[in-house]
Every structure is written in C-alpha cells, then in structure tokens.
C-alpha cells in the first residue's frame, strides 16, 4: 500500500540542521533554525533549568500520566508570565502542549471544530503556520505584513486587508519578535488592530514564541495585553522553547479566552479531547522545569537575568550587523530597530546558495537570518561576505 505514497520534500528549514552539521569547513556559520547561540556557538542550558532539573531528579516521586490538559500549576504560572495583570479575571481555558507548534495545531483544530473556516495570515510568516492551518482543514487567506525591499511593516495594507475579513474568521498575530522579519507593531498599532478585530467579530490567535528576546519580558507582551483588554475571545499559543532554552523538551501551552466561564469550560473540554485524539497527553519534563522556575523567586530572577543577557547579546549583534550591511544596503539600518532573533534580508535564493557554497554561511532560501546564531567575532567577516555578493 505504501507504494502509493508520493515522496515528500524535507522541511527546508529543518533540513538546514543536517546540512550544517555535515559541512566540515572550519569557520562555518549557522544562521538557520531559530535557536539561541552564545559567543562560543553553544546553545546553553539555562542555569535555572539545570538547577530545576536537579531538584526534579531528587524530588520527583512518580512518572505517572499528567492527563490531557497537563499540569494546572504550570499553566497558571506560564499564563501569569505571558499575560500578567491583563490575563487575570478572564474566563480562560488552558491546556499544556508539546511545544508552541503543538499549541498552534491545537488552536487550529479547535477553530475548525468551532466552525471557523478561514484564517488570515500576514506574509511573510513562519512557514509552518500555513502548513498547520491547512492540515487542520482551515482555508488560509493572506495579507501583506512586511515589505522586504524597504524593510517596513505594511500596517495600512494589513488594516485594509483585514477590513475584508468576515465575522467568525480568524487572524494570526505574532506577540513580538516577528518570525521571520523582526518587524515591530507600535503600541498604537496594537490598539488599532485590536479595535478592528473586536469590531469585526474576528477571532485572534496570538503566537507568543519569543517573549524576552525583543525589548524585554514585560514589553514583549504589551501588545498581547492590549489585545486582551479589547476583545471578547482570543487564542494564545505559548512556546517555552526559546526563552527557557527547552527546545527538545517540547514545552508550551494553548490558552483560550472566552466570553463566559461556561464557554471557557466547554473550550477546555474540547481542547482536552483534541489532545487525547492526537498525542493523548503532553510531555511533562519541560513543563515541570518551567513551573519550578516560575514558582521559586530566586530561580525565576536568575532565569530572567540570564535571558536578559541573551537578549542584549542579540540586540548588540543587530546593531553591528545593521551598520555593516548598511554600507551596501542603506535600508538595512532597519535591522537595528527590528527585534528578536530574525531579520529578512533582500536576497535572491541564488545569493543564499552562493553564501552557502562559497562561504559556508547557512540560512533558509527566504533570506531569513537568525542573528542569535552569530558570534561577535564573526560579524565583520560575515558582513564582508554579504557585501561581496
Ligand atoms: C524557526 O523558525 O527556526 C523555529 O521556530 C524552529 C522551527 O520549528 O521552525
């Protein structure tokens, strides 16, 4: 039977992991998949994560199932980190998920079950967004979010397009650190888009995967918090992969805000049912680590301090990269104002392939660069290679 299956291409982004690993050239540079690297090129385990793991090894008494909804204490603490005061007293349903992608998929399945037919995505976006929504049976409608040649957020175009969305349709927003462009919505723009969403009866799904890597832990949720104050219903997908460095532990959560407690209860039972028929129950380890850290003042403050040093390192590299690349592309001074791990360079795929073949610089064909993959000592050389294109 399997001979009826057509062979599928590898995921182009994830394929970079293997291609980079296999390259034996010294001085190779990985600007591919979105993982944080330090000045030694390592993706470190946070000190607080190590300490929490030690405590878990000593103190954990069982490995029994956690149930399809996961650990309510983890969910509450992560929600507090994500939404702060804006998230209190809302009718909220929460389910622990395998990573942020698991949360987006559960959100998509829930939307499909709720009767949402279409979801609006600003382009460019993380390539897996479209794939996940289509896999859940939703129709994807796109609008322009970011203009690569001028490196600007197309806010007016976005608002005009969303005026065409009908009540009952969904719209995806990135909480901060837009993937793949680093483009930022101002506080006024968050207020305006929140009002449009509320007035048009749209359902917002906010993807929060990089909190703490943009302007800081609180600032990176400010837009989301504005939205929460203005809409009756929302879905929020949260990932702990980057800001807790728990990539392979698949740690995340989906939160749904409903208009009433009864509706929130129904949403929770539906999310739990969808989880049950998909992966049954979420992995525990990463969530147990996050819960321990967020519940312990000393661990939490050490974790936040280490995350802040990562954020500052990325922001510093951004400044240097922007200054260097602007020598040829004036417009790329914008990289300094963008936030998070990514920027999207105005390169042709052929340029990307030349950088890979001639200089062992790895990035996806889109021209997205993971700035967090760059060491300070490499910036000047990498800039020269870009300028030589
Ligand atoms: C990325 O965009 O590189 C990360 O979010 C990793 C992934 O799963 O694609």
What does this structure look like?
This protein has 389 residues and is an alpha/beta fold. It has two domains: 12-45 and 300-388, Aspartate Aminotransferase, domain 1; 60-297, Aspartate Aminotransferase, domain 2 (3-Layer(aba) Sandwich), CATH 3.40.640.10. The protein is 42% helix and 15% strand. The chain has 13 helices and 13 strands. The strands form four sheets. A seven-stranded mixed β-sheet has the order 2-10-9-8-7-3-4, with helices on both faces. It has a two-stranded parallel ribbon with strand order 1-12. Helix 2 crosses helix 10 (285-294). The chain is globular, with a radius of gyration of 21 Å. The chain starts with 14 loop residues before the first helix and ends with a helix. 45% of the residues are buried. The mean pLDDT is 97. Bound molecules: (2S)-2-hydroxybutanedioic acid. (2S)-2-hydroxybutanedioic acid binds next to loops. GO terms for molecular function: identical protein binding; L-aspartate:2-oxoglutarate aminotransferase activity; L-tyrosine-2-oxoglutarate transaminase activity; pyridoxal phosphate binding.
């Amino acid at each position: 039977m399997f001979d009826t299956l057509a062979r599928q291409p590898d995921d182009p982004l994830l394929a970079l992991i293997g291609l980079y690993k296999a390259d034996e050239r010294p001085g190779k540079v990985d600007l591919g998949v979105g993982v944080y690297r330090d000045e030694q090129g390592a993706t470190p385990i946070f000190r607080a994560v190590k300490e929490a793991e030690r405590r878990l090894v000593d103190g954990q008494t069982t490995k029994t199932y956690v149930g399809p909804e996961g650990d309510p204490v983890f969910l509450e603490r992560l929600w507090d980190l994500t939404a702060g005061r804006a998230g209190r007293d809302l009718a909220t349903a929460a389910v622990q998920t395998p990573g942020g992608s698991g949360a987006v998929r559960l959100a998509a399945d829930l939307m499909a079950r709720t009767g949402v037919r279409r979801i609006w995505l600003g382009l460019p976006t993380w390539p897996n967004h479209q794939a996940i929504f289509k896999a859940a049976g939703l129709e994807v409608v796109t609008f322009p979010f970011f203009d690569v040649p001028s490196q600007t957020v197309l806010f007016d175009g976005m608002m005009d397009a969303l005026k065409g969305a009908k009540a009952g349709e969904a719209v995806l927003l990135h909480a901060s650190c837009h993937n793949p462009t680093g483009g930022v919505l101002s506080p006024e723009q968050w207020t305006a888009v929140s009002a449009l969403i509320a007035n048009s009866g749209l359902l917002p799904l906010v993807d929060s995967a990089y909190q703490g890597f943009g302007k800081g832990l609180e600032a990176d949720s400010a837009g989301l918090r504005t939205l929460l104050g203005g809409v009756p219903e929302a879905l929020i997908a949260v990932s702990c992969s980057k800001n807790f460095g728990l990539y392979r532990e698949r740690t995340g959560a989906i939160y749904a805000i409903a208009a009433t407690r009864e509706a929130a209860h129904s949403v929770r039972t539906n999310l739990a049912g969808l989880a049950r028929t998909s992966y049954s129950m979420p992995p525990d380890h990463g969530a147990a680590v996050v819960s321990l850290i967020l519940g312990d003042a000393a661990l939490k403050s050490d974790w936040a301090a280490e995350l802040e040093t990562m954020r500052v390192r990325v922001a510093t590299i951004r400044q240097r990269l922007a200054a260097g690349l602007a020598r040829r592309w004036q417009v790329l001074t914008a990289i300094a104002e963008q936030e998070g791990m990514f920027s999207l360079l105005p390169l042709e795929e052929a340029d990307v392939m030349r950088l890979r073949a001639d200089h062992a610089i790895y990035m996806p064909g889109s021209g997205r660069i993971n700035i967090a993959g760059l060491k300070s000592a490499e910036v000047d050389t990498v800039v020269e290679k870009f300028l030589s294109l």
